[in-house]
Amino acid sequence: MPKRLVYLDNAATTPVRPEVLEAMLPYLGPDAFGNPSSPHRFGRAARAGVEEAKRSIAAALGADPGQVIFTSGGTEADNLAVIGCALAARERGGPFRVAVSAIEHKAVLAAAHAVVRLGGEEIILPVNGQGEVAEDGLSEALARGVAVVSVMWVNNEIGVVQPVARLAARCREAGVPFHVDGVQAFGKVPVSLHDVACTLFTVSGHKIGAPKGIGALVVRDRHAVEAIIHGGGQQFGIRPGTENVPGIVGLGAAVELAAREQAAFAARVAALRDELERRLLAVVPDAVINAAHGQRAPHVTSVSIPGTDSEALLMHLDLAGIACSSGSACSTGAVEPSHVLTAMGVPRELGVAALRFSFGKENTLEDVETLIGALPKIVEKVRALSAVLHR
């Protein structure tokens, strides 16, 4: 009997949903393949698909269709928000300085570092032991003057939920653009930009059943951001270039589905996550659930297993047919603990022993049972090997 394969890495990427693929296919065929900037019927058919996707995404997020700017994914959208706001502020004679939380995705942190290389400054906002942004740090940053503040809604490693509505209100009062990376939030927690006064919001397709290589940045103030890619006049010149029409249509379909299913999805995966944590602590009693006492999104858990290292655990889990990660998928392979756990003050020996399990639409209780059935022997084997290597 073939080995049961278990995929618990949905925070890294998700499979394309059949409904999304079906929506995309006409835009890969002979009738709607045109350049959406072209005035003829082929171009008009493509443009119609783009405009319909804008309307779907805007309705799901609580934005206006004209505020939806399509990008190649979450990383580009984050870079456009952070670097674009810094450039716009410099152009106006404002502060060439950005503030980002210490646990942001590397797309945001690297964008802040790029501002420094361009001659600007970065402020890293500290977090507490549960991964929550320290608001005193935000107050200090706003007092110094910044071009943009960027704080993610849901952290991709530990699932902590930030009080983005409150942070957005603070920034709005100070007259500072506020960017929210919503990549891990949308479809998992209730998201409405009617309730969050952010200036910019990032969403990524491949986290919600759309293909890789498509995302969007909601830009509610076009004067707040300068283009970082230069070319034609598409998308108000904020993100020029011929649009990825099939990807955009797929993103529109995925966003619509994710919004419709969010409440039911969240309830189901929260039950699976809680059951995984309960059973895991029963078989590995000294394991530590990172950020266990913070407010967390339902689909992610980060677990440190003392006496092991995550890379060895991942290898043995993969051999057992179980896929998960050691934190952010974009930094897998690093020997050091993740920057997220380090910023939270997690001891190094626990940081290097952290696994991330993330649930998606297809996961079931059987997946949890398969993992728990395999884990004790894997932990025993890795601990024995670690003891030999560190004698």
Q: pLDDT below 50 for ≥5 consecutive residues: which ranges?
A: none
Distance between the termini: 40 Å
How many structural domains in the coordinates? 2
Question: The biggest beta sheet, please?
Answer: 7 strands, mixed
Class based on secondary structure composition and strand pairing:
alpha/beta
Going across the major beta sheet, what is the strand order? Answer: 2-8-7-6-5-3-4
Query: How many E-type strands?
Result: 12
CATH architecture of the largest domain: 3-Layer(aba) Sandwich
Average pLDDT number? 95
Please identify which CATH superfamily of the largest domain we are dealing with: Type I PLP-dependent aspartate aminotransferase-like (Major domain)
CATH topology of the largest domain: Aspartate Aminotransferase, domain 2
Shape: globular
- Determine the number of helices (DSSP H or I, runs of at least 4 residues): 11
Fraction of helical residues: 40-55%
Tell me the fraction of residues in β-strands, as a range.
Answer: 5-15%
Task: Output the helix-strand order.
Answer: EHHEHEHEHEHEEEHEEHEHHEH
Tell me, what is the CATH class of the largest domain?
A: Alpha Beta
Report on this model:
The chain contains eleven helices and twelve strands. By secondary structure, the chain is an alpha/beta fold. The chain has two domains: 6-14 and 262-389, Aspartate Aminotransferase, domain 1; 18-258, Type I PLP-dependent aspartate aminotransferase-like (Major domain) (Aspartate Aminotransferase, domain 2), CATH 3.40.640.10. The chain has a seven-stranded mixed beta sheet, sandwiched between helices. Strands 9-10-12 form a three-stranded antiparallel beta sheet. Helix 4 (106-117) links the parallel strand 3 (97-101) and strand 4. Helix 2 runs parallel beside helix 7 (245-283), helix 7 (245-283) packs across helix 11 and helix 8 (310-319) packs across helix 11. The mean pLDDT is 95.
